[in-house]
TrEMBL record:
Signal peptide: none annotated. Its main location: membrane. This is Squalene monooxygenase. The keyword Oxidoreductase applies. Residues 220-479 form the Squalene epoxidase domain.
Length: 509
């Protein structure tokens, strides 16, 4: 077995080299195409004046006298609250406008990967996972057809405190909001932003309704929109191509013990995966993936019935649902404004990468803006913001690509090539050593390097083909192997938009 594994790895390496060369040419062509298209699509100054952008000069007199604001942040969720504290700590005068300052109660953002925790430390926010009954997460356990395998995070080279953390999302957000609000130069206000204010193509601030319904305006040289996955404001700042491949149905299991304590549990079920992880010392979150954009109705009991028949889950308790959205980052470079968090970029939540990407983006932006003391220097600010989009890419695209690819591979399918790919992936991860730590380091954000992703991807594909062809390659097996690597592999991994997958829903929004 050891010799076989070594052969696969050596084979994978050479195949990866070939793959990389191919990929380089594919990507170059694809990017040239995209650039051409986005040049056509990019709206002019006048076109971005839609219903979420207004002119800021409708006879409006700007407030004078009061302290000026450097940055307006829309939304104080994971991204907005962390960003407010980060920029405030750097001496910026920050005005955060959040629709609802009470503790959120949601089924999202409950498992922070260790890579995200490292970012939290870099931002000085690690105490926000303390005193909320957060649980340490040390890796994943994967279950398939009665077999299981444990995938530990490669944490050996880190401080003993470094691990994943799982918690109630609302408690974590409240801790970050409170911490941001303790800074004298951060103003956290409850209000709903209704539009961005634009003047000669530059975003100058926002219009919002405060807690008592007054229409107000807030001005700043930089507006950062962090209004989450259902963002109403992003339309003028990016080209939102939102896909909803599935929904998560969330349940809480009380006082139940998971087979692997301090681990996320992923069941490769039919039709799609089910997740379990602790969110406090006495509660376990269960997320059941339901393919498609619609879940059976909760009101008429259809959902409870679905859970009982398809996943044998309990039929009492508070069932919640959320669409699983994915959206590539496709920003229009807009002077004076930036998108962050889910408003900017989303990926399937199977691998729990959203908060890690958001926190990583905040570190990139903080470091980038540090030398720029005067945000009123619009030309420089614009150049810095453009750099942000480039610098964030390696981490964000690695985590995003892996999330999409794993979701596809982990879904059950009657198609033989997809079945083989699912099996090969499970077995590859079960091999241990670099075959499990490599992919886990990628998805946990501990080593989110694109090259490592490409290498492991080809290693899995070649491992799958090797299993098919050994010891006797029949024509049928050769055909499945070719499909596995071409249709299920290269295309699906790197050009998902070209795959007519059964679960890909039409773009919404
Ligand atoms: C089902 C599901 C499970 C997930 N699980 C995980 C996980 O385990 N780990 C992980 O890392 N990621 C997970 N994610 C992704 C993660 O939740 C997001 O990446 C993260 O919450 C993004 O943070 P955000 O600040 O952009 O958005 P949010 O945290 O949603 O914050 C947006 C904020 O903006 C406010 N807002 C909205 N509109 C306005 C307005 N007009 N004016 C003022 N305020 C406004 C909202 O009230 C909210 O507070 C999951 C996602 C889903 C869908």
């Amino acid at each position: 077995m050891a010799i076989m594994v070594d052969n696969y790895i050596v084979g994978s390496f050479f195949a990866s080299l070939v793959g990389l060369v191919l990929l380089y040419f594919f990507r170059r062509n694809a990017m040239a195409e995209t650039d051409k298209k986005s040049d056509h699509r990019r709206p002019g100054v006048d076109e971005i004046r839609n219903d979420c952008v207004r002119s800021s000069t409708n006879g409006e007199v700007r407030p004078g006298g009061g302290p000026e604001t450097d940055v307006v942040i829309v939304g104080a969720g994971v991204a907005g609250a962390a960003l407010a504290h980060t920029l405030g700590k750097d001496g910026r005068r920050v005005h955060v406008i959040e629709r609802d300052l009470t503790e959120p109660d949601r089924i999202v953002g409950e498992l922070l990967q260790p890579g995200g925790y490292l970012k939290l430390i870099e931002l000085g926010l690690e105490d926000c996972v303390q005193e909320i009954d957060a649980q340490r997460v040390l890796g994943y356990a994967l279950f398939k057809d009665g077999r299981n395998t444990r995938l530990s995070y490669p944490l050996e080279n880190f401080h003993s405190d470094v691990a994943g953390r799982s918690f109630h999302n609302g408690r974590f957000i409240q801790r970050m909001r409170e911490k941001a609000a303790t800074l004298p130069n951060v103003r956290l206000e409850q209000g709903t932003v209704t539009s961005l204010l634009e003047e000669n193509g530059t975003i100058k601030g926002v219009q919002y309704k405060n807690k008592v319904g007054q229409e107000l305006r807030a001005y700043a040289p930089l507006t950062i929109v962090c209004d989450g996955c259902f963002s109403n404001l992003r339309r003028s700042l990016c080209n939102p191509k939102v896909d909803v491949p599935s929904c998560f149905v969330g349940l809480v299991l009380e006082n139940c013990t998971l087979p692997f304590p301090n681990h996320g549990h992923v069941i490769l079920a039919d039709p799609s995966p089910i997740l379990f992880y602790p969110i406090s010392s006495s509660e376990v979150r269960c997320l059941v993936d339901v393919p498609g954009q619609k879940v059976p109705s909760i009101a008429n009991g259809e959902l409870a019935k679905y859970l009982k028949t398809m996943v044998a889950a309990i039929d009492k308790g508070n069932i919640r649902t959320m669409p699983n959205r994915s959206m590539p980052a496709a920003p229009y470079s807009t002077p004076g404004a930036l998108l962050m968090g889910d408003a900017f970029n989303m990926r399937h939540p199977l691998t729990g990468g959203g908060m890690t990407v958001a926190l990583s983006d905040i570190v990139v932006l903080r470091d980038l803006l540090k030398p720029l003391r005067n945000l009123h220097d619009a030309a420089s600010l614009c150049i810095y913001l453009e750099c942000f989009y480039t610098l964030r890419k390696p981490v964000a695209s690695t985590i995003n690509t892996l999330a999409g690819a794993l979701y596809k591979v982990f879904c059950a399918s009657p198609d033989q090539a997809r079945k083989e790919m699912r099996e090969a992936c499970f077995d590859y991860l079960s091999l241990g050593g670099v075959c499990s730590t490599g992919p886990v380091a990628l998805l946990s954000g501990l080593n989110p390097r694109p090259l490592s992703l490409v290498l492991h991807f080809f290693a899995v594909a070649i491992y799958g083909v090797g299993r098919l062809l050994l010891p006797f390659p029949s024509p049928k097996r050769l055909w499945i192997g070719a499909r596995l690597i071409l249709a299920e592999g290269v295309r699906q991994m790197f050009f998902p938009a070209t795959v007519p997958a059964y679960y890909r829903a039409p773009s919404v929004q």
